[in-house]
Amino acid sequence: MAYDQNNIFAKILRGEIPCEKVFENEHVFAFNDISRKAPVHILIIPKGPYVSSADFYEKASADEIVALNRAIGEIAKEKGIVESGYRVISNHAAHAHQEVPHYHVHLLGGADLGVCFN
Ligand code: 5GP
Fold first, then answer.
1. pLDDT tens for the 118 residues of the chain, in order
2. Of the candidates 59, 56, 58, the residue with the CA atom closest to the CA atom of residue 91
3. Is the minimum distance from the CB of 34 to ligand 1 under 6 angstroms?
4. Is 104 known to be catalytic?
5. Three-class DSSP category at 53
6. Are the C-beta atoms of 28 and 44 separated by less than 8 Å?
7. Distance 61 CA to ligand 1 centre (A)
8. 16 partner at 20 to 30 Å CA-CA among 4, 84, 93, 112?
């Protein structure tokens, strides 16, 4: 699947759509999800044009991969949810109902999130 330069997160990265930014560095951008499923619900995305999890981990540089994964921990720490706990989710393609075709990680916390699998 080719990267769509007009997907919502590409527009957010270009500043064409507003967002509540929570983090940014050379490779990573993060902002609050518009439809929060928990008190903390942040979307963490690479700045590069990757469609999905599979695309990112196949094509991104080691620096980009480290930056994105390290950002998860930094943001969780900043939000004060390391001790209480958090969940990291990334939906890839149809069976996972990925809606936006720009790779993103959901960081959820700030309350008991319930059991994920049972
Ligand atoms: P997915 O199902 O692709 O893993 O999740 C996409 C997420 O993007 C959803 O949780 C949805 O609420 C969020 N989202 C969709 N459009 C926007 C938007 O314009 N701004 C923000 N901040 N989040 C969005």
1. 899 999 999 999 999 999 999 999 999 999 999 999 999 999 999 999 999 999 999 999 999 999 999 999 999 999 999 999 999 999 999 999 999 999 999 999 999 999 987 6
2. 56
3. yes
4. yes
5. helix
6. yes
7. 25
8. 93
